[in-house]
Design brief:
Chain B: This is Glutathione S-transferase theta-1, variant 2. Chain B: It is an enzyme of class 2 (transferase). Chain B: It comes from Stylosanthes scabra. The complex is a heterodimer of chains A (251) and B (246). Helices cover 55% and strands 7% of the residues of chain A. Chain A is an alpha+beta fold. In chain A, strand 3 and strand 4 form a beta hairpin. In chain B, helix 1 runs parallel beside helix 3. Chain B has a four-stranded mixed beta sheet, with helices on one face. Chain B has two domains: 79 residues, Glutaredoxin, CATH 3.40.30.10; 148 residues, Glutathione S-transferase Yfyf (Class Pi), Chain A, domain 2 (Up-down Bundle). Chain B is an alpha+beta fold. Classes of the chains: A alpha+beta (251), B alpha+beta (246). The interface between A and B is medium-sized, with 31 and 30 residues.
Chain lengths: 251, 246
């Protein structure tokens, strides 16, 4: 039986969710690194796998699939022995998992990803920082965190939708929030600090997926160090928009 | 279990998708109108149903559910006798349909909804038109249409992912595109006419779900007429007194 191939860049939040899910559940797979900062996602070979040139993508036999939520659902359904809490068989619980996965696209993801890109990550991809876009994204991010705190994490369980154990929705959304590790500590504290349930939920999800969660996030922590070092070298903690990209060669 | 309740505003694209699906599949339900233009989605009663205050939402027994794709998937799975093509049991086929529904949010929906609101619908919702946002949205919309034409509608099937019959994804996304009906006809034509497969696909989906498709879209066609009349009146006013028709 051919192993599933997972095309991923561990700097990509949805890539991490898929890799962690596979590792936690003992799904045998080949991880094929596609480095976005080196523009490998734009190669003709990868376009053959995913014409949208995005990560993650999987190939299972002859079957090619992209969009991380669709991938997580497929893996949870296609492989035997996956504990039910990841993608419940009960239709009502399953429907609720779908609803938060759907909400995610234009809420948490729509806020968090551009916020991180426009405040700190853009130079890694040779792009200028964009404070205006960052401010707009921050509003969406804070609104989404508030909804997580007050609506999605309501109930006695530690996970979304009152869950006592994590689902694929918890994994997907927590991996998204982890990208905030890259921003300035003060900003991170300002944005995340007021949301106590959210912080606990991140810890719960990390614990539930030990040691894979931290192992898969290592590259994120490494890039965080590089960004910090660069910022202190420049002395004033503000990244220049025309930064040369020595970061790219270190990734 | 009590009868399914569907909270909907037929001016809302995802509301229409859920209503059409229920009707075409013979699902017994009660439609409860929530008029967004009157702020009814902000009422305490509706907030009980959906704390995020959006339509559509359903109540089925003790389940309260929102997000139209989650609703469509739930209905296709929970009710008996639903034709398989809507949400195939075969996992790889199902995964493809999930992937296009996921793609939809940030692409077609994001582009279409913001374009229509910022060029036409905003005043009806108590908001301002926003030409800058409209331009950005148009770029996303055109890029999404191109992607539909070149990638998602690749093949001879007539439906998304080379399907020969419609899935939940086709219904959701065609209802989204129908919102363009309220635009100025020249804009609508300019935006849609280059995409022949997309136009054919809209027709295919309409045909496959009539008469329910047309019936559920009646309110949109009425709104379209109103906007056409408004635009004509505005144009008349602008031509000035010497050119006023006798």
């Amino acid at each position: 039986m051919l192993k599933v191939k997972v095309y991923a860049d561990r700097m990509s939040q949805p890539s991490r969710a898929v890799i962690i899910f596979c590792k936690v559940n003992g799904i045998e797979f080949d991880e094929i690194k596609v480095e976005i900062s080196k523009r490998q996602h734009l190669s003709p070979e990868f376009a053959d796998i995913n014409p949208f040139k995005k990560l993650p993508a999987i190939v299972d036999g002859r079957f090619k699939l992209f969009e991380s939520h669709a991938i997580l659902i497929y893996l949870a359904s296609a492989f035997p022995g996956i504990p039910d809490h990841w993608y419940p068989a009960d239709l009502s619980r399953r429907a609720r998992v779908h609803s938060v996965l759907d909400w995610h696209h234009l809420n948490l993801r729509h806020g968090a990803a551009p916020f991180v890109l426009h405040t700190v990550l853009a130079p890694v991809f040779g792009l200028p920082l964009n404070p205006q876009a960052a401010a707009a994204a921050e509003k969406i991010l804070i609104s989404s965190l508030s909804k997580l705190e007050n609506i999605w994490l309501k109930g006695s369980g530690r996970y979304l939708l009152g869950g006592l154990q994590p689902s694929i929705a918890d994994l997907s959304l927590v991996c998204e929030i982890m990208q905030l590790e890259l921003v300035d500590e003060k900003d991170r504290e300002r944005i995340l600090g007021p949301h106590k349930k959210v912080q606990q939920w991140i810890e719960s999800t990390r614990n539930a997926t030990r040691p894979h969660f931290d192992e898969v996030h290592k590259v994120l922590y490494k890039v965080k160090e590089i960004i910090r070092a660069k910022q202190s070298n420049q002395g004033d903690g503000v990244m220049q928009s025309r930064t040369k990209a020595p970061l790219a060669s270190k990734m | 279990m009590g009868k399914l309740k569907v909270y909907a505003d037929r001016m809302s694209q995802p509301s229409r998708a859920v209503l059409i699906f229920c009707r075409i599949s013979g699902i017994d339900f009660e439609e409860i109108k929530v008029d967004i233009s009157k702020g009814q989605h902000l009422s305490p009663d509706f907030t009980e149903v959906n704390p995020l205050q959006k339509v559509p939402a359903i109540v089925h027994g003790s389940l309260k559910l929102f997000e139209s794709h989650a609703i469509l998937v739930y209905l296709a799975s929970a009710f008996t006798g639903i034709a398989d093509h809507w949400y195939p049991t075969e996992l790889s086929r199902r995964a493809k349909i999930n992937s296009v529904m996921d793609w939809h949010h940030s692409n077609l929906r994001n582009g279409a909804v913001n374009y229509v609101i910022n060029t036409t619908l905003a005043p009806a919702l108590g908001r301002q038109l926003n030409p800058k946002a409209a331009t950005e949205a148009e770029n996303v919309l055109l890029s999404s249409l191109k992607t539909l034409e070149d990638i998602w509608l690749n093949g001879d099937g007539g439906f998304l992912c080379n399907g020969i019959q419609p899935s939940l994804a086709d219904l959701s996304m065609v209802c989204e595109l129908m919102q363009l009906e309220v635009l100025d006809e020249r804009d609508r034509s300019r935006i849609l006419s280059p995409y022949k497969k997309v136009l054919q696909w809209i027709e295919n989906t309409r045909t496959a779900t009539n008469p329910h498709f047309e019936e559920v879209h009646n309110i949109l066609y009425r709104a379209k007429k109103k906007f056409e009349q408004q635009r004509a009146r505005t144009a008349e006013t602008r031509t000035g007194p010497s050119n006023k028709p006798g």
